[in-house]
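In response to the reviewer comment on reproducibility (Comment 2.3), we provide here a single inverse folding case reported in full, input and output, so that an independent group could reproduce the run without further information from us. The structure tokens appear first.
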């Protein structure tokens, strides 16, 4: 396995946007380990969100330290029916 990801491989995983004079990750197209800053969109599962995130289409597997769509979240057990 090569030590460096190719641009083509990276673009299969993320979209980039130029916002307020700097390049940012616009969307994560698959699973994500940790979001340390702000994120607009995660298509798959995410382990930890430390910043603010607008949309997570998958599961947040460990913890949300920031907000999702401006709301603070807390861990709550639900029944298996939900």
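Designed residues, in position order:
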């Amino acid at each position: 396995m090569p030590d460096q990801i190719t641009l083509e491989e990276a673009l299969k995983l993320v979209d980039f946007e130029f916002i307020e004079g700097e390049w940012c990750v616009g969307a994560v197209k698959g699973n994500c380990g940790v979001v340390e800053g702000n994120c607009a969109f995660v298509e798959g599962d995410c382990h930890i969100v430390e910043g603010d995130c607008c949309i997570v289409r998958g599961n947040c597997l460990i913890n949300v330290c920031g907000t999702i769509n401006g709301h603070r979240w807390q861990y709550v057990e639900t029944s298996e029916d939900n």
